[in-house]
Amino acid sequence: MYKIEINDFFTSAFSVDCVIFGYSDGEIKALLIQRGMEPYTHFWAIPGDLVYPSEDLPDAAQRILHELTGLENVEMHQSRTFGSPNRHPQGRVITISYFALIRISDFEIKASSWAEKAMWVSLNDIPELAFDHNQILSSTYELLKQKLSNEPICFEMLEQRFTLNEFQQLYEYAFDQTLDKANFRKKIKPLPLVPSNESQKNVRHRPAKLFSFDYEKYSSAVKDDNFQFKL
Amino acid sequence: MYKIEINDFFTSAFSVDCVIFGYSDGEIKALLIQRGMEPYTHFWAIPGDLVYPSEDLPDAAQRILHELTGLENVEMHQSRTFGSPNRHPQGRVITISYFALIRISDFEIKASSWAEKAMWVSLNDIPELAFDHNQILSSTYELLKQKLSNEPICFEMLEQRFTLNEFQQLYEYAFDQTLDKANFRKKIKPLPLVPSNESQKNVRHRPAKLFSFDYEKYSSAVKDDNFQFKL
DNA sequence: GCAAAAGTGTTTGGATTACACCCATGC
DNA sequence: GCATGGGTGTAATCCAAACACTTTTGC
C-alpha cells in the first residue's frame, strides 16, 4: 500500500522557530540570534531548535526560546509550518513557526546555549538568515500585520504606558501610511484606555498624557457587548 | 548539549490532512472518509495520510487527497499544524492541515486505497472523528470564515453560475445572520460579477439572473486599483 | 388573481475625512 | 516669544441600515 515500510516514515525531525517582535525607536524589531553551531554557523537566525520526540509544541517553543535568549514566560502563538524537503541540510526537518510580541524593555536578552549572540534587529535591516528564515520571518510579519488590524495585540509591544502618538506611530509604521491625529483619536475612542496621572517628561513641547490598555475591560466588552477591535 | 543523541530526533513522522469544503443545499459541507485501516478503523476522518520522507507538503496533500477520494487538481492552502505528543497512537506524528474549497458538482468522489467510503457531510452533522480531527476541522472552519470575509473564495464553492441570493445565503449561513437583500446587493456592487443571459429555470416565482465571478477583472482591480475584497 | 421571490429606490443616522484651530512646555 | 508637538472641534462627505415598493414568474 505504501511505497516504503511504515517504520521508514518515522525518520523525520521537527523544530520550532520563535519569531519575537518588539517595538522601539519607532521601528518594529525581531529578536535574532547568531548561530554557534553547524549548519549555518555564524549566520543570524530566528531562535529555534529541534523538538524532543515527546515534547508538545508550545512547551518546546518556550523551552527553546529560553535556552537561546534567556526569555521566560513568553506566550507564543502558532504561525505557519515550513516543510520543503531540502530546507535543512541534516535531514528532513519540518519547522513550525511561533510568534509573540513583547515589550523590549521588560526583558533582558542573554544569548546562551549554542547562540553566540542575541539582539533586536529592525525589520528594515534584516540580513541574510540561516535556512529559510527570511521567508519565515516575512510570512510571520504578514500575519502580525493582519492581527494588528483585528486584535489589540499592539499593546503587548508598546510600553506599559504609552502616549497616543506612540500608539498611532506604530500603526503608521506597520501599514506604511500617515494617519490624521484627530481622526485616529476618534477611532480609538471605544477602546478601554486608562489615562494615568503622569505625563511625558523632558520633552521640549507640551508633554503628552500616558495611557495604558485595560485588558479586563476589553475582555468583558468582547463578551458582554460583542465588541470587536478594528483598526 | 541535547538530552538525547541527534539521531534520536529523527524518529518522527508527519502527515497532511485535507479539509475540503463544499456548499450545496444551503449548507457548507466537508468531505470525509471512513477509515479502513488501523488505528481508528471504521471511524470517519478528514482525508489525510503520512508524507513520504522526501516529499514536499503541498505535493503530499495533492497525492493523498487523490488516493483517498479520487479528487485531482485541487489547489490547497495551509491551515494549522497539530502536534500533541499523543495525538497518534503509533508514534509521534505531527499533522499539517490543508484546506480547499471546491464545487461539489464539479467532481466525482470515489473512495479508494484504505478509504472505505467518502462522502460530503454537513458541518451541522459532523460525527466523532478519528484522532483530533474534530479539532482540526473546526479550527480550519474558523480560518475559512475569516477568509470568506477578506478574499473572494466563496466563488470556489458556489456553482459556476449562481444567483445573487445563493451568494447571499452562503454568507448568511457562514456568519449565522440574516442580511438585507437590498443592502447586500449595494455592498457587492464593486465586485466584477458578469450577468449571464440565462436565468433560473423551473421556479414558481420570478426567475433570478445568473452571475459568474470574473477572476481576471478581480486580479487586475487588486493590482491596478488597489481594490480590496471585504464582506 | 395570488403567492413567492426577484430586484430597486429612498431616507436616515452614524462614521470617516479633511482641515483648522488652540494649548502647554523648553529654550 | 517661538518652535514643537499635544490635543480638540466642525463641516462635508460617504456608507450602512431599515424599510418600502415594483416586477416577473408558476399555478
Please tell me about this protein's structure.
The structure is a homodimer of 231-residue chains. Chain A is α+β, with helices and mostly antiparallel strands. Chain A folds into two domains: 6-150, Nucleoside Triphosphate Pyrophosphohydrolase, CATH 3.90.79; 158-225, Winged helix-like DNA-binding domain superfamily/Winged helix DNA-binding domain (Arc Repressor Mutant, subunit A), CATH 1.10.10.10. Chain A is built from five helices and nine strands; from the N terminus they run E-E-E-E-H-E-E-E-H-H-H-E-E-H. Chain A has helices at 57-69, 133-150, 164-175, 181-187, 215-225, and strands spanning 13-24, 27-35, 44-45, 48-50, 77-82, 93-101, 115-122, 193-199, 209-213. In chain A, strands 1, 2, 3, 4, 5, 6 and 7 form a seven-stranded mixed beta sheet that branches. The longest helix of chain A is centred in the middle third of the chain and has 18 residues, at 133-150. The mean pLDDT of chain A is 96. The interface between A and B is medium-sized, with 33 and 33 residues. The first copy, chain A, binds a DNA duplex (27 and 27 nucleotides) through residues 163-165, 180-183, 185-187, 200, 202-209.
